[in-house]
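Structure tokens please, single chain.
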Amino acid sequence: MLTDLHDWLHSLAAKRLENSGLHKAVHYALGRWPALIRYLDDSDRPINNNRIENAIRPNTLGRKNWLFIGTTRGGVRAAAITSLLATAKANGLSPHAWMSDVLALLPTTLNRDIDTLLQLEGWAPREG
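Here you go.
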């Protein structure tokens, strides 16, 4: 089916579509073709990014609430923390428990070992 789709896109691209929306869409799809079919290389890869979209939905919905977060640096920090919590949740961990563990370990962790706190292996999924 994907081969047929690819052939069809090429046949459309060969026609004179000028600068229409269809022209742009066809050339965009053909330009992104390797990324589009990447999920075929590994059966564990999803065909879409719905899981990620659902994970960031609370951030999108709360965007206006966080408009006045303080400073740009504060916004960057809030985005980083939110990303870490969404990653923990996506890996079956309780974000609160994971963050509590990381914050408890942080004062005694050497600077060179900080990255070990970002590795989710070793933290067991928890309820809560």
